[in-house]
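Entry for iron/sulfur cluster complex. Fields follow.
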Amino acid sequence: MRYFTYRSLAELEAAARAVGAVHVRFVHDRTRVQELLSRKVAVGGFLTGNSMAIHPMEGCDGTLDGKPDELTWRRYERFARGGAKLIWFEATAVRADGRANTRQLMLDRNTVSEFARLVEMMRRVHREEWGTADDLLIPVQLTHSGRYSHPVRVIAYHNPLIDQKTGTPPDCPVISDDEIERLEDFYVDAAGLALEAGFAAADIKATHGYLLSELLGAKTREGRYGGPLENRTRFFRNVFGKIRAKYGRRLMLCMRLGCFDGVPYVTDPETGLGKPLPYPVPYPWGWGVNSMNPLEPDLTEVKQAIRWFQEWGLELLNVSLGSPYYNPHLGRPFEKPDEGNYEEPEHPLLGVDRHFRVAGELQQEFPELPMAGTGYSWLQKYFIHAGAANIEDGRIRFVGIGRGALTYPDFARDVIEKGELDESRVCKTLTYCTYLMRQKHNELGQFPTGCPPFDKSVYGPIMKQARETKRRMQGN
Ligand SMILES: Cc1cc2nc3c(=O)[nH]c(=O)nc-3n(C[C@H](O)[C@H](O)[C@H](O)COP(=O)(O)O)c2cc1C
Ligand code: SF4
């Protein structure tokens, strides 16, 4: 279904009012947009050169042993030249069994020197374009893919609805406490390697349904890492503590935190729209959910956890929502679903509104902790106006863009130089990038992903090949 039909900011603004997206507001004045997005941001002891961020965007294009490959280099060169001063480096596994696909990046002794070369390149080209890289912050996102690990899933607990949606058998073993404790040391080692590679910051990723995000919602899990909030946050307390003890303040600690899991959605066969799987009330699982109405966030525990994370050393937070595997409309409001997935169950403006509401509430609760907000790409060229309004109101410190950066890696330059974006270059949220990410049927076991419609010369042929080989395999 086509939602984004607006020919002006005024039309989009009227639509936001009409659907009740009260947190989606806009700064109209171009100069003011420039000023707000060019604001420097203090992050711990660091000062970033502006308020624009590129979210972590996996390209599924590493070598089989986890090193950055040709397309990885290309992507980060484009991002580094682009002008955003916070470039959040994509999900990078801390060990082999935590990789989501055969081409996911992995930080270990064997790969660290390639990461160092890549970071050095990013800083060099950024300096060439912008005079300095001293105000460019590049956190690396450390991950264990948990339930979505390839080839063997690792789960923190059973949520029967997520099990149903992801084909997880009810007798699938749950990772043991001892194994979780051993995993802590892999994160600590990876943090040391991140430092060695030249990253100034490490993100202990806890979002999108991967292992650590699942752990936060493991209310029904027994033992040291489940049940009460103290137990569900134990992993972070231990990892932050060990990193601080080992590396002091040389490495900044960050998190991409999923702040609302929601419930799994499936396609309604009659309408093609997404609908939630039937759920019990009270809802005993999940993170940031209102147990009496799990379609709604409840940030009480999330706020308590952020308070602790800060005590343990957190200096920068990236706010996200939902899971791309079971409720993609929460995390990435879209015009068109990826092939075979459900159509938007709500007006995408309400999805954007939810992002702004949650991130705004958290940023206002913790004004001293800089946060990066998500959910902007659907707004197309007007996202900068919405981001500027959020910054102006103290409801976010960084305006972050995910898919939009694949189509338009140098959007920040146009903001800085012109105060407006080029309509022909903005992401139209058509979701081919997610489609490519899900394609595994080539000799490497994974197709690389990027933007086929707007980065055509590179990803057009990849898309064509993925489609044709799939059709041939299906015999039509
Ligand atoms: C192809 C693709 C790769 C992604 N890779 C990551 C990732 O590595 N880590 C992460 O936290 N989120 C990842 N995301 C989610 C984005 O960072 C972002 O949260 C999401 O796309 C919503 O923001 P947007 O509306 O600006 O695109 C990915 C999304 C896409 C489409
Ligand atoms: S394929 Fe391109 S236009 Fe479509 S959602 Fe991804 S980045 Fe945006």
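NOTE: The mean pLDDT is 97.
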